[in-house]
C-alpha cells in the first residue's frame, strides 16, 4: 500500500475513533437526562398520589368520627380516634415524600452518570487522538526520510 495512503487512513481512523467516543458519551448523557426527567415526574406523581390518598382517607376518617359520635362514644375515645386519623394522614403524606425523595435521588444519580459518561468520552477521544497522532507522526516521519540506497562495490 502506498505509504501516503496508509498515513491518511491512520489519520482518518483516529478521527473516527475520537468522534465515535464523543458521540457515545453524548448519547449516554442524553439517555441519562431522559431517565432523570422520568424520575422527576415519578417524584411529582408520588407527591400528588399521596396527597390524593390523604384527602380520601381524611373523608373516610371524618365519616368514622361521625359514626362514633352517632353511637354516643365518649370524648376520650373520639379524641384518640381523631389523633389516630391525623397520624394516618401524616403517614400517607410521609410515604409519598419518601417515595418522591427516592425518585429525586435516582434522578440526581442519573444526571451524574450522564455527565461522567460525557467526560469519559472526552478522555477516550483525547487518548485516541494522542495514540493515533503518534502513529500518524511516525508514518509521516518514515515518509520524510530520504530514500538512500547503499551501493556495494563490485556490484552493478
Compact description:
This protein is mainly alpha-helical and 156 residues long. Helix content is 88%, strand content 0%.
How would you describe what is shown here?
The chain is rod-shaped. With 156 residues, the chain is mainly alpha-helical. Helix 1 packs antiparallel against helix 2 (75-144). The protein has helices at 3-70, 75-144. It contains two helices and no strands.
Low-confidence residue ranges: none
- Please count the helical segments: 2
| Rounded mean pLDDT score | 91
Globally, the shape reads rod-shaped
Rounded to an integer in angstroms, the radius of gyration calculated over CA atoms is 35 Å
- The amount of beta strand, in percent, is under 5%
Largest sheet: none
What are the secondary-structure elements, in order, as H or E?
HH
The N- to C-terminal Cα distance equals 28 Å
Topology, number of strands:
0
Q: Structural class of the secondary structure composition?
A: mainly alpha
Share of residues in helices: over 70%
Top keywords for this entry?
0% strand, 156 residues, rod-shaped
Topology:
Layout: H1 3-70, H2 75-144
Amino acid at each position: 500500500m502506498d505509504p501516503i495512503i496508509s498515513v491518511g487512513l491512520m489519520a482518518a481512523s483516529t478521527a473516527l475513533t475520537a468522534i465515535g467516543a464523543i458521540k457515545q458519551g453524548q448519547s449516554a448523557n442524553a439517555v441519562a437526562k431522559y431517565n432523570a426527567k422520568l424520575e422527576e415526574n415519578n417524584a411529582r406523581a408520588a407527591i400528588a398520589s399521596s396527597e390524593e390518598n390523604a384527602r380520601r382517607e381524611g373523608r373516610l376518617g371524618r365519616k368514622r368520627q361521625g359514626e362514633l359520635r352517632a353511637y354516643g362514644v365518649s370524648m376520650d375515645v373520639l379524641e384518640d380516634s381523631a389523633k389516630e386519623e391525623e397520624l394516618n394522614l401524616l403517614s400517607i403524606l410521609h410515604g409519598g415524600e419518601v417515595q418522591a425523595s427516592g425518585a429525586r435521588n435516582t434522578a440526581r444519580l442519573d444526571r451524574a452518570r450522564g455527565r461522567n459518561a460525557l467526560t469519559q468520552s472526552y478522555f477516550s477521544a483525547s487518548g485516541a487522538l494522542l495514540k493515533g497522532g503518534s502513529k500518524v507522526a511516525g508514518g509521516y516521519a518514515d515518509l520524510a526520510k530520504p530514500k538512500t540506497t547503499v551501493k556495494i562495490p563490485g556490484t552493478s
